[in-house]
Structure formats: C-alpha cells, structure tokens
C-alpha cells in the first residue's frame, strides 16, 4: 500500500513568514497614522491656546524668587469672569461715592465749625485785658496800695487796667526830669562829649537841697544826662536847662509846649529839676510822658543803669540808681523815674515789660514813704504777670 507523503511543518513555515511580515508592516503603518493624528491634535490645541493668549494680551513670564523658585502667576480674568468683575466695579463705585459723600459732609461740617469758631476767636482776640481777682486783684488788696494816685495802662491795647484818683492834679517832683531829658535831647546840635561845668546858677535856692556836684565840677553832657535820670541829680538837671539856646526861660517854655503837644493839658512846669511844687500833672497824663520818653534810646538806657562812675574833672564820683526796684532787679522795665518832695510824697513811673515783652505803663503818685512806693510797684507787677498773657 502506497502511502502519501505528509507535508512537514518545516516545509510550510516559510510560506507563513511573508504573510506575517506583511501584517507587521500594516501594523506599523497603523501605529504611525495614530501617532501622526495625536501630534496633529496636540499642535492644534497649542495653536488654539496661543491664539487665546494673543487675544487677551501678552503672556506673563513666571517670576523667579531669590532662590530660583517660580511663583505661581495669577490668571487674568476671562470673558467668563466679566460679570463678577462688573459687580466688583459697581461695588467699588458705590464705595467711592460713599467716601466722596462722607468727605463732602465732613468738609461742610468743618466749614460750619470754622464759621462758628471764628466769632469766638474774634471775640477772644478783641476781649479787653483785665486784672483778675484770682491773681490778687481784690478789693482788700487794693486797699493796701500806698500811693494816693495810680494809673495802670496796657499800652498794647490802650486799655486802662486800674486807676485810682488818676485825674487828680498833684506835684510830680523829679518825674519832671523825663521831660527835661526829652527837651534837651531834641536840640539839633548837641555834642554829648563836650564838657559842661556846674555854676552857682545851678544851686537850689528853693529847697536848699545839697548835691555831691560842687560848683566848678566839670562833666560831659552825656554824664550830666546819665546821673540826672539814673540818680535824679538836681544840679545836673539845672545845668542842662541852662545849656540851651535862649537859656533856662526858653527851656522851661519848651517843656510846657511839649506837654501840650503830648495831650497833657493839666501838666505844667516851673523848673527842670522838679523841686518846685508847681511842677504838676496827673497820673493819667504822666502815662503819655512815659510813652514819649520811651522813644529815646538814651533815656531808656540811662534811666535803667544800676550804677555809674562819673569823672568830674578833679576826681570821680560813684552814682547808683535811685529806684530800688531797678537797682535790685525786682521788675523788668524799659523806662523808669522816681521823685520826691514834701509836697508830692514819693512818686514813681515805670514802663514795665510783662513777661519780658508786653508793655504796661504804671504811674504812682503820693506814697508817704519810699518803701510804700516800692511795694506798690511789686504788687502791681504781680497782678500784671498773673493776669496778662
């Protein structure tokens, strides 16, 4: 029996390989196609994203900190968030409007407050100064004032702060020497360095007072003025009145004319020293004399000097200030003068500087003692320093 030969696997396998190779090629083609489709999709999405960024603005680069770490960027608002942004804008607009309204209301209130405060400030500024009871200015304290006539004038406002018998005409004694100095200094040609000699015409034949300046003593005109004001030297004042164009009568006439020009109708002078009881004025009118005297620099400095060594030709004389308030620094003043004769009692005039700046004129006439006049000056200065700004 004849047998039919069977094909062997080894014989068939070569036939299968071509088919398998063809299938692999197809598979590779399919994979390549899928990969290309994937790349196309990715590139499309990238192009779409770039277009979106271009429509909203330039892309921001991530910021890098000092250590190289990237900080996340905040995304910009998109069209989808527009309603929310609009609501924020409306709320911010309402807030700004509220703040503006509040500012307007506040400004209006401030303007109203300023308008309301303006009359108060004006009233305070226009309020007249006064001496206060809490500063010791009481009825009981005023009864202890020794001077018979007193006038206290705030020069800054022209307000009388205190007066007692201020219109009473009374002898003023050596307060006269303020007018003597003013009239003498008003001469056009007055070389103060030239020397002036004391003569017998300068002796006091009215009260027969004595003086340390003897007949024949020779002083400069500047020294004559100095000791007449600082120490109330009578012979110096008498020599000054003689050393005037037209002599002593012309000098006295000039003194009375100046008093009338200053608005002092009740003031009259008979001599330049004040030794005559006919040299009279009032406490109120003497305030005008003090104000006028304060305009002369030499009167200010000489009347306030505490001591001075004077060359009298054949030696020297030491003079001191006759006002103990000034000599011991108890008050601050710019002008002062004291005076005494039996008919007048003890007198004192001052231009005080309250708090070293505010001028107040104080005139006091008729104290029985020099100590009483000094104590009045101290008391009034305390009232002023406490009551005035």
In short:
This protein is α+β, with helices and mostly antiparallel strands and 389 residues long. The chain is built from eleven helices and eleven strands. Helices cover 47% and strands 16% of the residues.
Task: Give the secondary structure arrangement, pairings included.
Blueprint: H1 9-56, H2 82-126, H3 139-142, E1 149-154, E2 159-164, E3 170-171, H4 176-185, E4 195-197, E5 218-220, H5 221-230, H6 234-242, H7 247-261, E6 280-281, H8 283-293, H9 297-304, E7 307-311, E8 316-320, H10 324-327, E9 333-341, E10 345-354, E11 358-367, H11 370-387
Weakly predicted, low-confidence segments: 1-16, 53-89, 95-113, 115-121
- Averaged pLDDT: 82
Counted by DSSP, the helix tally is 11
Tally of extended strands?
A: 11
Q: Encode the helix/strand succession as letters.
A: HHHEEEHEEHHHEHHEEHEEEH
Distance between the termini: 158 Å
Instruction: Give Rg in angstroms.
Output: 54 Å
The main pleated sheet reads as: 5 strands, antiparallel
- The shape, in one word, is elongated
Side by side, the strands of the main sheet go 2-1-11-10-9
Report strand %. 15-25%
């Amino acid at each position: 029996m004849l047998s039919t030969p069977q094909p062997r696997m080894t014989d068939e396998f070569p036939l299968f390989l071509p088919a398998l190779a063809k299938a692999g090629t197809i598979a590779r083609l399919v994979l390549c196609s899928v990969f290309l489709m994937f790349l196309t999709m990715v590139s499309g999405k990238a192009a779409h994203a770039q277009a979106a960024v271009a429509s909203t603005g330039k892309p921001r680069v991530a910021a890098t900190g000092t250590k190289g770490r990237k900080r996340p960027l905040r995304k910009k608002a998109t069209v989808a968030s527009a309603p929310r942004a609009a609501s924020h804008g409306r709320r911010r607009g309402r807030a700004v409007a509220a703040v503006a309204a509040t500012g307007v209301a506040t400004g209006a209130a401030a303007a109203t407050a300023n308008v309301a405060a303006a009359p108060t400030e004006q009233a305070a500024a226009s309020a007249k100064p006064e001496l206060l009871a809490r500063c010791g200015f009481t009825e009981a304290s005023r009864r202890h004032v020794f001077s018979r006539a007193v006038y206290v004038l705030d020069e800054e406002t022209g307000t009388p702060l205190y007066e007692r018998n201020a219109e009473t005409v009374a002898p003023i004694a050596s307060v006269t020497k303020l007018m003597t100095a003013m009239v003498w200094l008003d001469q056009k040609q007055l070389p103060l360095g030239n020397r002036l000699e004391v003569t017998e015409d300068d002796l006091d034949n009215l009260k027969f007072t004595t003086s340390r300046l003897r007949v024949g003593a020779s002083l400069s005109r500047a020294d004559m003025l100095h000791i007449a004001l600082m120490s109330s030297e009578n012979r110096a004042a008498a020599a000054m009145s003689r050393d005037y164009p037209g002599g002593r009568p012309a000098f006295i006439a000039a003194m009375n004319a100046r008093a009338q020009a200053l608005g002092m109708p009740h003031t009259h002078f008979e001599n330049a020293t004040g030794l005559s009881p006919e040299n009279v004025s009032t406490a109120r009118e003497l305030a005008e004399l003090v104000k006028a005297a304060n305009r002369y620099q030499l009167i200010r400095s000489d009347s306030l000097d505490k001591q001075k060594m004077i060359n009298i030709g054949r030696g020297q004389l030491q003079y001191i200030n006759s006002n103990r308030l000034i000599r011991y620094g108890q008050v601050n003043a710019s002008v002062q003068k004291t005076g005494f004769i039996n008919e007048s009692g003890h007198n004192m005039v001052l231009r005080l500087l309250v708090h070293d700046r505010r001028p107040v004129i104080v005139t006091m006439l008729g104290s029985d003692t020099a100590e009483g006049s000094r104590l009045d000056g101290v008391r009034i200065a305390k009232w002023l320093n406490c009551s005035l700004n």
